[in-house]
Amino acid sequence: MSADGVDLKKRRMLTAATSVVGAVGAGFVVYPFLAAWAPSEKAKAAGAPVEADISKLEPGQLMRVKWRGKPVWIVRRTEQNLKDLGAIGDRLADPASDMPQQPEYCKNEHRSIKPEYLVAIGICTHLGCSPTYRPDVAPADLGADWVGGFFCPCHGSRFDLSGRVYSGVPAPTNLEITKYTFLSDTTIRVGEDGGAA
Fold it and tell me: Are the CB atoms for 8 and 1 separated by under 8 Å?
């Protein structure tokens, strides 16, 4: 007790108890505010990796999956497609993929982990249209030198079967190659950086 009749122990205990109750109360006020900044479960699911079963994908076929609201193409290239990739380098704007439109482990002629499979975002790098898959060779509308690839009907951009852009078209860069990994010989996980095979 102090000289003026105040119990200092009791005062310290009440001050500490009030501080603790105040801190807990502040936590209850701040938590909902901070929780509102966290992404919703729907948003988390939209950005989560997706798996694609490629077991039934035949050579020359394309399948589509959706990841982060974007179309992702998975193309199983034929042996001839792979041979043609090396023959058209002089007609491409960025044949060596020097612009960073792919993970480092896909910076090669075929722009993929395994040469047989292309995994690319199916959005034209010009204005965001979705090109069409044109695996046919020398069609009348694309010319005798066309060896297969992707054609954007919006403004005429053309890409080879590695997603590399042709010279002289509106698209400024190659198609984007997303990060992905092979979980097995028949399953690809899009959106997860797995590195080289």
Answer: yes
pTM beyond 0.85, yes or no: no
- Distances in whole angstroms, Cα of residue 127 to Cα of each of 40, 85, 102, 154, 169: 29, 25, 19, 9, 12
Burial-class residue 76 by CB neighbours within 10 Å (0-12, 13-18, 19+).
middle
Residue 42 near residue 25 (C-beta atoms within 8 A):
no
**Chain segment 145-157, per-residue pLDDT in tens:** 899 999 999 999 9
Yes or no: say if 73 and 133 are a contact pair by the CB < 8 Å rule.
yes
Q: Give the amino acid at 194.
A: G
CA distance 155 to 123: 13
CA-closest candidate to residue 75, choices 148, 155, 15: 148
Q: Compute the distance between CA of residue 26 and CA of residue 32 in angstroms, rounded to an integer.
A: 11
Q: Record the tokens describing residue 92, joined without a space.
A: 């491409």
- CATH no. of 45-190: 2.102.10.10
